[in-house]
Amino acid sequence: MAPFLLTVLQVLLALTFWIGIGSGSSNRYNAGDHVPLFVNKVGPLHNPSETYQYYDLPFCRPEPVIEKQETLGEVLNGDRLMSSLYELKFREDKTHLVLCRKRLTSSDVARFRDTIAQDYYFQMYYDDLPLWGFVGKVERDYFGQEEKHTKYYIFSHLKFNVLYNADEVIEINSFSDPSYLVDISENTETDVQFTYSVSWNLTSERSETRMNKYSQASLHPISQKIHFFSFLNSITVVVLLIGLLSLLFVRHLKNELRSSSIGDEEEKKEVGWKLVQSDVFRCPRNVSLLCAFLGTGTQLLILIIALFALAFTGFLYPYNRGMLLTSLVIMYTLTSVVAGYTSASFHSQFEGNKQKRSVRLAGILYPVPFLIIVSVLNTVAITYGATAALPFGTIVIIILIFTLLNIPFLMLGGVLGNRFGLLEFQPPTAVKRNPREIPLQNWYRRKLYQLFLGGFVPFIAVVLEWHQLYASLWGFKIYTSPGIMLFTFAVLIFLSTSVGIILTYIQLSGEDHEWWWRSILCGGFSAVFMYAYGVLFYLRSDMTGFLQLSFYLGYTALFCYALFLVLGTISFLASLLFIRHIYRSVKLE
């Protein structure tokens, strides 16, 4: 099974990297060449999911507006690049060039005023480099503690500062000139003259490093301090858990195995996990669902590993428009063969002729909740007219990818798992026909307590870094430290594995042999804590509105559900290996 997964991962990375290389281009220009500036979207600063097309606001617009051809990932990311009236020719300075003269109606003024009150920003792209600016500003006059007057101003002049090296664009920044303001505080028609200036400056920076400035946010001293404390927190929890394992758990288990090998019958009766050796390998309930869970979890684990590999190779970087989502679509589609293979392979160990049900369940275990939530969110986005709403053509493409590629790959994996998968499972001990009755458990062996402990310990070790991840996804803080994230993920896997083994051992010591699903739930319960922390993060943030709330809760739920499947699978596999080891070590008389 391991060689098969490794082969899939290598093919996956090669194909994704090849597509990314093919989509990129090295742009070189001569002096005076036209370099198009595309306008993208506008939206409130504190609501990252609430974005609208640039020309939804009454800005100066060309006739006709030409939409840039976009990739699937760009559309999924909410990018809607369109042509503009700005002319930024390579290495040509311009001063106070008139973009257009526009008469704003009272409704246009009211619309601008509402957006300025919500701190609306705009985003543009120039030679694939992003740039931002604010639509306007608010000035409030106070008399004592009371607000007396509020003034709304729109920026009418935009400055572009472009850096170049030889024949390549290296960097671009935009500045809204505070000297050019138009008062739109009153609901009256207003004449506005929009202007812009362009200045070009030579730099020694090379084009290969022009995206590095977007990665410098993670090198800020405050961010480094947070990462440092997160590292200390994770190491402390890991060291304490290793100490617990070595001093209590491993030593106690070795003593029990030693007493078993000696044949001390009196001591053997005192050990609960030896009494259930004839029931511990009994076929679990809902075995098809269990195997589908393992298949989906393994698929998502391979996908996460592939993402880390792409990030370390520099393939994924901030504001590489849509490449992350494009990579996710490609990798999820191709790794469907892993889900089918793993589900069928595990099912063949229990019931040799019913793998098809496991494979079908693996095909709906994550995609169906995903499609339901995305459909609801898409309906909300359409209602608001946001760019997050998927066009009909994109929806058709997604459906075709799922039906023509995802499902066949899933079935192919099922066939391979049925023919070349794991051999039929041979338990180390014989399984009785009738299951042993489970005695009443102590409080620390009950399911709710074990679920809480299994989720809380891994979560508390990564909570600081998890906060940084939420701030990156929902707060415009760029997370560009794949090494730190990989370390955090490795700590999460190690703790989920260790805690899962310990809780499984405690459960078996209480003569409770129904460990299969318990080990999955204990391992995956960290994701429940992560989602709860996500709700707390939202309540403490400045995000507002139903659109942002629905997108935040919906996509955070999908993200945590995927993590639940991955960690539950890892915890189960670790518990299975542990149980096989200890029962093989028992000397049966």
From TrEMBL:
- Indicate yes or no for the key word Signal: yes
Q: Where is the signal peptide?
A: 1-24
Q: What is its main location?
A: membrane
Q: Name one GO cellular component term.
A: endosome membrane
Q: Which InterPro entries match?
A: EMP70
Could you list this entry's UniProt keywords, alphabetically sorted. Answer: Endosome, Golgi apparatus, Membrane, Signal, Transmembrane, Transmembrane helix
The membrane-spanning stretches of this chain are 228-250, 287-317, 323-344, 364-386, 392-416, 448-464, 484-508, 520-539, 551-579
Task: Specify one Pfam family.
Answer: EMP70
- Membrane topology (UniProt): Multi-pass membrane protein
Cellular localization per UniProt: Endosome membrane; Golgi apparatus membrane
Name its GO BP terms in alphabetical order: protein localization to membrane; response to nematode
Give the molecular function GO annotations: SNAP receptor activity
- Family in the record: Belongs to the nonaspanin (TM9SF) (TC 9.A.2) family.
Q: What is known of its domains?
A: The C-terminal KXD/E motif functions as a Golgi retention signal, certainly through the binding to the COP1 coatomer.
The protein, known as: Transmembrane 9 superfamily member
Q: Which organism is it from?
A: Arabidopsis lyrata subsp. lyrata
